[in-house]
Amino acid sequence: MSALIIDGKKIAAGVTERLKNLVSNLPAGEIPGLAVVHVGDDPASAVYVRQKERASREIGIRSYVHKLPESATQDELLRLIDKLNKSAEIDGILVQLPLPGSIDAEKVIAAVLPEKDADGFHPANVGKLWMGDETVEPCTPKGIMALLDSTGVDMSGMEAVVIGRSNIVGKPISAMLLSRHCSVTICHSRTKNLPEVSRRADILVAAIGKPNFVTGGMIKSRAIVIDVGINRVNGKLAGDVEFETASRKASWITPVPGGVGPMTIAMLMSNTIQLAGLIHSERGE
Ligand code: NDP
What we know:
Blueprint: E1 4-5, H1 8-24, E2 33-39, H2 43-59, E3 62-68, H3 74-86, E4 92-95, H4 105-111, H5 123-131, H6 139-150, E5 159-163, H7 170-179, E6 183-187, H8 194-198, E7 203-206, E8 224-227, E9 231-233, E10 236-238, H9 243-249, E11 252-253, H10 260-275
Helix pairs in contact: 1-10, 2-10, 6-7, 6-10
Bound molecules: NADPH dihydro-nicotinamide-adenine-dinucleotide phosphate.
């Protein structure tokens, strides 16, 4: 039997539509503002920044892109963040990663006020996430939870295996699955017998950055498979999951493209509107 597709594009469009309606009913003085800080010339970052601007325009929130050259110093960047922290026009601040090597990314992330942290990366917000407190959730994992919720499956008590332990995906999605009462195992490059571990998963999240790494043989029959990976192979996008073999084993699966990717930007918009105090941390509701 072939897996059902979790259509991230459609679900993200639904979130976008709801947020657009919400913003369109606001008086001019209450329209949320998002500042995107882009340092350097990384071409992929330039694409992401443009996508964020486009999404802001579509929803009707104010978007301010601050472009600094590759040669910008850490002090210059910290001064800009301080200005944005103090600006009444700005509800959310996002610093596009990666930053040039001369800049200490952790220091920059910690300089953003936690109550303006559109990415949910500030240590205070990360702490709240692990404590199970209401907070601004990192966009990609928040999108993954919305995709899982769209299946209607009760996650409580399920075995979840997350492959990848990055601060932007692996760790936060693990905290979020835990808060939904999954038993969570986090795997990484030193995990022994990975296929054995992944085959235990009722929910398998692959956030590795290696094309087609997770094959059908690593998946439990009827598992829900979330493929976070964005890899380029011969000019085409490929996920971390080998879709053809995995979709024969899974009950639900996200495609690449059209799965997790579109959700990330929709959730950034949701976070900005949440930081403006217009919604709670529910996923785009
Ligand atoms: P990182 O490179 O920060 O982390 C990758 C993780 O995978 C690490 O924890 C690493 O382990 C683990 N890993 C690497 N090789 C193996 C292996 N052979 N076996 C088991 N684990 C392994 O990546 P990110 O978390 O930032 O991103 C992961 C993927 O998701 C990328 O393809 C990225 O492009 C994509 N992505 C997609 C987004 C979207 O919007 N759809 C958003 C963010 C990321 P270790 O810690 O031991 O090194």
